[in-house]
Amino acid sequence: MSVVTDWPALHEHVIERFAAGWSDPHPHAWDDLLAEDVELTQPLLRHGRGRALWHEEALRLLAFLPDLRGEVLSWAARKDIVFIDLRLSGTAGGARLSVRACDQLTITTSGRIARRDSRFDPRPVMGTLMRHPSTWWPWWRSGIGPLTARRALLTSRPGAVADRRSQELR
Q: What predicted TM-score, i.e. pTM, was given to this entire model?
């Protein structure tokens, strides 16, 4: 006996939870949505697998843009694939940043995100960084960039950044 998945209801649930996470983002805002071994591909952030990776990258992102918020502009879905048109906005060092992203989510029949592929043009972010020196320190301190050199200095052991940033946000 096969179980029929109510994809439209599942899509609505995923969009609702995804939007709620971006309306008040913190590293654990999407825990009820992300599969434990979620695969993540995202511009300017580390690619990889696992909720713990997302927690660490979300901490970095929020350290750079503490007032970051996301707004779901539109979405489309078919079976296990959901596309979300998203506007992300925040302030770094007094400079306002806004980018539009397209996330492609692969979801399970239980409504968990098994894979997230986020795409956006990073040139506006880099342009803001170049035009506003006040953004340099928040960008550097967050660990978002420059990725290789900066992260080597920040992490002496796996999870060190996440542990430190969790304490800073309390």
A: 0.82
**What beta strand segments (E) does the chain contain?**
34-41, 48-49, 69-78, 81-92, 95-107, 113-119
- From 113, 61, 53, select the one nearest 83 (Cα to Cα): 113
pLDDT band for 30, please (50, 70, 90 cuts): very high
Q: What is the CATH number of domain 7-160?
A: 3.10.450.50
| Mean confidence (pLDDT) of the chain | 87
Identity at 159, one-letter amino acid code? G
If phi > 0 it is left, if psi is from -120 to 50 it is alpha, else beta; for residue 143 that is left
pLDDT at 156 over 60: no
